[in-house]
Amino acid sequence: MTIKRPTLAQMQEIVADLGMHMSAERVGEFLELMEPNFEAYDLIESLPDEIPETKYPRTPGYRPAPEDNPHNAWYVKTDIKGAAEGKLAGKTIAVKDNVCVAGVPMMNGSSTLEGFMPDIDATVITRVLDAGGTIAGKTHCEFFCLSGGSHTNATGPVHNPYKMGYSSGGSSSGSAVVTALNEVDMAIGGDQGGSIRMPSSFSGTYGMKPTHGLVPYTGAMPIEATIDHLGPITQNVADNALFLEVLAGADGLDPRQYSVETHNYTEALGKGVKGLKVGVLKEGFGHANSEEDVDKSVREMAEKLKGMGAEVSEISVPMHLIAPAIWTPIALEGLQWQMMHGNGMGMNWKGQYATSLLDAHSSWRTRADELSDSLKVSMFVGEFGIRHHRGRYYAKSQNILRRLTAAYDAALAECDVLLMPTTPMKATPLPPKDAPLSLYLQRAFEMIGNTAPFNATGHPGMSIPCGMSDGLPIGAMLVGKYWDEKTIYQVADAFASS
User: Fold this and answer.
1) Does residue 362 have an active-site annotation?
2) Active-site pick, 167, 168, 171, 201
3) What pLDDT band is residue 26 in, cutting at 50, 70 and 90?
4) Which residue among 96, 209, 481, 486 is the active-site one?
């Protein structure tokens, strides 16, 4: 098997794009001498790819009819049964549609990827099935996961489980909705700026963004490797802790994983909070877009924990107010470099590449007008930063991030967990189809102020329901030390059980 060789015209274009000046004769001389390199490519083309075995039989599933999918939360329904026994035996699991399930369609919220059929199971899928779980289907997410609202999916908006016409939060919108509606026991979500915790806040579910690297990202479509997370969304704390026990741990294929520490998280349940220190993060409240009932409900949760024996005090991390700005160049330049220019995979890392996904996603360039406006604005900022500022602000943000991390670590040295609202507001109305660009983008990014910082630093954070107002859930977020999800579960379980 041979790969297609470049023409002289193609090589002249490459030379020019690289800022070099050569005669056609000189380019042709280089082209001739490149042949041994292309023979190596021929050899690679002839070899089989190294992809994991698909262990459990399945069919592609089916697209549910609108009347069976009124919230537009499902993309494809399946019935993939795992092992006969295990921690998840009898449990049904939904999968965010940025995660590969071999032989089941995947579109990651995007019209440009629709029709793609993965040829591998993500590590988390194999772990679910090995633990006896049943994959009930793929759930809609936002267009390449670039929205904290639920209005950007190419098939239409995903509606809030408590109030039609309202946002369910994003980008793991469908995962939160089908869990909240009790259509599955639990779901896999993904989180780069809050995308597990924000839909959990809006939809009234329990959503854990674990420590960066605790759950392998292998086989999920990345946005940016330093902020990519997968984690569980569930109806209760106990299932969340159980699910994380199954999902967590190194797989040897994900460069995001380093010095991973796992625990038996379910052992944290039922221990109460007596003696634990809860730091109410001052800067997590009173934002310009904060709703009074949200702040009030989270403060009431703090008082309830105090009444249960926790030591509760206010703690200040002034850098929290600029933390979203630190996250911004990392997320936007990073996504443009890895997810878009890098065809969803990027380079410069060792591990499991989904080459079929890379091939399928690369077609976005011929259909770029179809991309969502929330993705477009992110790409524009990221491309400008790369092209005109050399990626300097991505690099500087990563450097400053160490200072932010140290500030949170210092606060967490004084307490066991930090407490704040997950989102400053409850679910907002979905923007109408003819919404101005300003409203469309506002509804996509207005809620990330408390969540995005911990994607950048990698600290674990969990959204738990702490109240209702105007018929909509309110979410509180608990943030813990690295690898200390068990203490988060201990506090969450005590509050939920009270």
Assistant:
1) no
2) 171
3) very high
4) 96
The answer to whether residue 171 is catalytic is: yes
Instruction: List Cα–Cα distances, 36 to 18, 42, 303, in angstroms.
Output: 22, 10, 71
Determine the Cα–Cα distance for residues 433 and 430; give it in Å rounded to an integer.
9
- Count helices and strands in the chain by DSSP H and E runs: 15, 11
* Global model pTM greater than 0.85: yes
Q: CA 355, CA 369: separation in Å to the nearest integer?
A: 24
Q: Which two tokens stand for residue 211?
A: 């420590």
Residue tagged 């992809």 (tokens)? 51
Domain range 66-497, its CATH number among 3.50.50.60, 3.40.50.970, 3.90.1300.10, 3.40.50.1980 = 3.90.1300.10
In angstroms, the CA 444 to CA 310 distance is 36
Q: In what order do the strands lie in the sheet with 472-480?
A: 74-81, 134-139, 92-96, 186-190, 230-234, 206-209, 461-469, 472-480, 417-421, 277-281, 311-315
Domain positions in the chain? 8-46, 66-497
Beta bridge partners of 479: 418, 461
- 81 carries an active-site annotation: no
459 Cβ contact list (under 8 Å, min separation 6): 211, 405, 408, 412, 479, 480, 481, 482
Is the separation of the CB atoms in 332 and 297 below 8 Å?
no
Q: Please pick, among 110, 195, 297, 372, the residue that the annotation labels catalytic.
A: 195
Given a contact cutoff of 8 angstroms between Cβ atoms, the answer to whether 475 and 465 are in contact is yes
Q: 173-202 pLDDT, tens per residue?
A: 999 999 999 999 999 999 999 999 999 999
